[in-house]
Automatic annotation (TrEMBL):
Any one GO BP annotation for this protein: establishment of competence for transformation
Pfam entry (one): TfoX_N
Cross-referenced InterPro entries: TfoX-like, TfoX-like_gammaprotbact, TfoX_C, TfoX_N
Name of the protein in question: Competence protein TfoX
Gene3D superfamilies from the UniProt entry: 5' to 3' exonuclease, C-terminal subdomain (1.10.150.20), YgaC/TfoX-N like chaperone (3.30.1460.30)
Residue ranges occupied by any TfoX C-terminal domain in the UniProt entry: 117-193
Segments traversing the membrane: none
Domain spans labelled TfoX N-terminal: 15-105
Signal peptide: none
Length: 210
């Protein structure tokens, strides 16, 4: 068994034709991704490919075992399957299976994006999704087009208890940040705007945005 860093280097060399492969630490191992689409993971020095149609025959015959992840002492089988030494000795076949795993992951990602709801964005929940719907913001596309500030003004108009944390949450949902991880410059800009909005400037800006 190789260590995980060596296996990462070997995987990147062997699968280079897939594109630029980025390796990031994840769950004590590494994830491998092309253009931010994860198609494989490395755990305890072993490579596991994401499940796809090309891998199914190997799963059925038992030559590719699933990755087992222990969560609170309970073993959970993940949809990633082990690349054994026999496959490493067949670089063309390994590349073909990896291409299948990447394409399947890309299709899944596209489907998720098409079906994405407001509640699925960072910081969002069903309650906030319902509140936004009440003010006419019914989709992720509409939220992004409306923007965090105008969306907040619409919410504030019907709910006086809406505060700055909701503004941060909306901005994070649109830009892909957890609200606590928003860049400091953006937080300060939003805080200044929030203070002006609460001091009466918000009414003027609201009319200009409408």
């Amino acid at each position: 068994m190789q260590n995980s860093k060596q296996r990462v280097e070997q995987s990147i060399r062997s699968l280079a034709s897939l594109g630029k492969i980025d390796a990031r630490t994840q769950f004590g191992g590494y994830s491998l991704a092309v253009n931010k689409v994860v198609f494989a993971v490395i755990a305890e020095g072993e490579l596991y490919l994401r499940a796809c149609e090309q891998i199914q025959p190997y799963i059925i015959e038992g030559s590719m075992a699933p990755l087992i992840f222990n969560k609170r002492g309970m073993p959970i089988s993940l949809a990633y399957y082990h690349v054994n030494e026999a496959l490493w000795q067949q670089p063309e076949k390994l590349l073909l299976l990896s291409q299948g795993a990447l394409k399947h992951a890309q299709r899944e990602g596209k489907t998720r994006r098409l079906n994405l709801r407001v509640k699925d964005l960072p910081n969002m929940c069903v309650r906030l999704e319902m509140l936004l719907r009440q003010v006419g913001i019914c989709s992720v596309k509409m939220l992004r087009e409306t923007g965090a500030r105008r969306s907040w003004l619409k919410l504030k108009a019907v709910n006086k208890n809406i505060g700055i944390n909701t503004l941060f949450a909306l901005e994070g949902a649109i830009s892909g940040y957890h609200r606590a991880a928003l860049p400091v410059a953006i937080q300060e800009e939003l805080r200044d705007w929030f203070n002006h909005a609460n001091n009466g400037a918000g009414k003027r800006e609201h009319s200009e945005l409408e």
